[in-house]
Design a protein that fits this description.
heterodimer, A: mainly beta, seven-stranded mixed sheet, 0% helix, B: 112 residues, five-stranded antiparallel sheet, 56% strand
Chain lengths: 117, 112
């Protein structure tokens, strides 16, 4: 089956620093990847849609200058949290859509837990 | 704006019982509906995906149904086991290129 990896799985950083999270599709090429975040005891919220070779599309309320997304290849999308603050502490999960499948199912990575101190 | 609602928010039942989790959505132009399982502090495990042209999908003890006209989906778990304890999330998308809209989940506890 389709596998999506994320790195790192956990990261702790100091307030004001930047953190990069990688999302990779391991056995298929993903023209579209998605980034979600989940605050404690909340559900997942879509942050942005990442399209290979073009700018990401951000959901309302998500600051594009704070959450930089780069989808430079068909197997890699990165999310950089710039000037992180404690309120950015969250669980970030990516997903990738396999364009070869007929159902357009999204395959999820294992997530990255970000803690900003 | 699409909304997904899950009822109940929490459920605790004895082992062996059959149970139903409910999901309702506002977007009648649904493309896919997926059910996921999330264990504490972990990522998502995809359980079942129902395309808009389908009415149900089955995998082992799990059966998910989709009724587009009423905007509802149910996840049926047969012969529940303690290992089924987790949060179950329902999510829908309005198009193949769109992200998923998630419900808040049902926190399920199966008592041994």
């Amino acid at each position: 089956g389709a596998v999506v990896s994320q790195h790192p799985s956990r990261v702790i950083c100091k307030s004001g620093t930047s953190v990069k999270i990688e999302c990779r599709s391991l056995d298929f090429q993903a023209t579209t990847m998605f980034w979600y975040r989940q605050f404690p005891k909340q559900s997942l919220m879509l942050m942005a849609t990442s399209n290979e070779g073009s700018k990401a599309t951000y959901e309302q309320g998500v600051e594009k200058d704070k959450f930089l997304i780069n989808h430079a290849s068909l197997t890699l999308s990165t999310l950089t949290v710039t000037s992180a603050h404690p309120e950015d502490s969250s669980f970030y999960i990516c997903s990738a859509r396999d364009p070869q499948g007929s159902s357009y199912e999204q395959y999820f990575g294992p997530g990255t837990r970000l803690t900003v101190t | 704006k699409q909304e997904v609602t899950q009822i109940p928010a929490a459920l605790s039942v004895p082992e062996g019982e059959n149970l139903v989790l409910n999901c309702s959505f506002t977007d009648s132009a649904i493309y896919n509906l997926q059910w996921f399982r999330q264990d504490p502090g972990k990522g998502l495990t995809s359980l079942l995906l129902i395309q808009s042209s389908q009415r149900e999908q089955t995998s082992g003890r799990l059966n998910a149904s989709l009724d587009k006209s009423s905007g509802r989906s149910t996840l049926y778990i047969a012969a529940s086991q303690p290992g089924d304890s987790a949060t179950y999330l329902c999510a829908q998308t309005g198009g193949g290129a769109d992200g998923l809209t998630f419900g808040k989940g049902t926190h399920l506890i199966i008592q041994p």
